[in-house]
Specification:
- It is a single chain.
- With 291 residues, the protein is an alpha/beta fold.
- The protein has a single domain, classed as Aldolase class I (TIM Barrel).
- The protein has 11 helices and 10 strands.
- An 8-stranded mixed β-sheet has the order 1-4-5-6-7-8-9-10.
- The longest helix is centred in the middle third of the chain and has 15 residues.
- It is globular, with a radius of gyration of 19 Å.
- The two termini are 24 Å apart.
- Bound molecules: iron/sulfur cluster.
- Iron/sulfur cluster binds next to loops.
């Protein structure tokens, strides 16, 4: 299999076949992200993708799930994604789900009809980096989309029957705004009905615009206790049935649960963690590297 540059995938796709269809990230401008900062975006050629699938057929003929890499692979047009999906089914006929990272802006570029056609080709789950439901924070993170875009585009996925996981970050709004961020993000989640919600926690990667803003005093990261209180608040405000997929190592308290069924248990879990930590640590800003 050919992989060019860094490859990232959700922790939950550890046993999934990774197929490269793009290199880097087409957007590559989010304030906090340096994952692909030095990588030139490009699209993989269809004949190389076919060679990779021929190899996959030899080694993993019974694969049921494929994750298309890299950073925002759903940036590919429906016209490009359809032949890729068709090749996957030609070589790996047992595949039931083709999934990938997507941005809200990637959804804007596809018609309702195209979303349905992609779903019929088993592109039926997406990992969407929505990041926050807090309008001012979304602008600061420089995702290139507005809160109205998130509301509209994620609902279009519901209408197309295309399931998605909602990625977001505790601490995204910075110190003093965790409760606002939790309330606004929970509201967006409740409105858009993702099958799972996937938290990470904001950290400052060296040389990111965020790190520069922190150095210049323009942004202040949330303390540990602020992040943990935000986590509890968000969990408390989730009203829809959705999986809480929180095992990413960047989070302080890592667990999976089903909401709202496990709401009380999940909040208690964070509380018991807080009780075990000393005040100095709770009031500090632990070093974290955002993804
Ligand atoms: S967070 Fe995602 S969309 Fe933003 S620059 Fe990083 S990989 Fe690209």
């Amino acid at each position: 299999m050919k992989y060019t540059g860094p490859v990232y995938r959700p922790p939950y796709e550890a046993n999934t076949l990774l197929l490269q269809v793009t290199v880097g990230c087409a957007h590559n401008k989010c304030t906090f992200c340096t994952m692909y900062r030095d990588v030139q975006f490009s699209m993989e050629k269809l004949d190389q993708i076919e060679r990779d699938l021929q190899e996959a057929k030899q080694q993993h003929p019974n694969v049921r799930r494929v994750f298309l890499v890299n950073g925002d692979a759903f940036v590919l047009s429906a016209r490009r994604l359809k032949p890729i999906a068709e090749l996957i089914h030609k070589y790996l006929p047992k595949v039931e789900t083709i999934t990938m990272y997507a941005s809200v802006s990637n959804l804007k570029g596809k018609t309702d009809e195209e979303l349905k056609e992609l779903r019929e080709l088993k592109i039926n789950e997406l990992w969407v980096g929505a990041e926050t439901g807090h309008a001012e924070t979304l602008t600061y993170l420089n995702k290139g989309t507005s809160l109205e875009d998130s509301q509209k585009q994620l609902k279009r996925l519901n209408q197309a029957g295309l399931d998605f996981y909602f990625g977001f970050m505790f601490g995204a709004a910075g110190s003093g705004k965790g409760m606002e961020n939790a309330a606004a993000t929970a509201k967006l989640i409740n409105e858009t009905n993702p099958i799972g919600i996937v938290p990470t926690t904001l950290g400052a990667n060296a040389n990111s615009p965020l790190a520069n803003d922190i150095e210049d005093g323009k942004f202040q990261l949330a303390t540990e206790i602020e992040v943990l209180e935000e986590q509890k608040k968000l969990i408390d405000l989730i009203e829809i049935e959705t999986e809480y997929l929180g095992i990413h190592g960047i989070n302080t308290v890592t667990f999976d649960s089903l909401l709202p069924r496990d709401k009380e248990k999940s909040i208690k879990r964070v509380d018991s963690y807080i009780e075990r930590l000393d005040d100095a640590y709770l009031n500090s800003i632990p070093e974290r590297h955002s993804i």
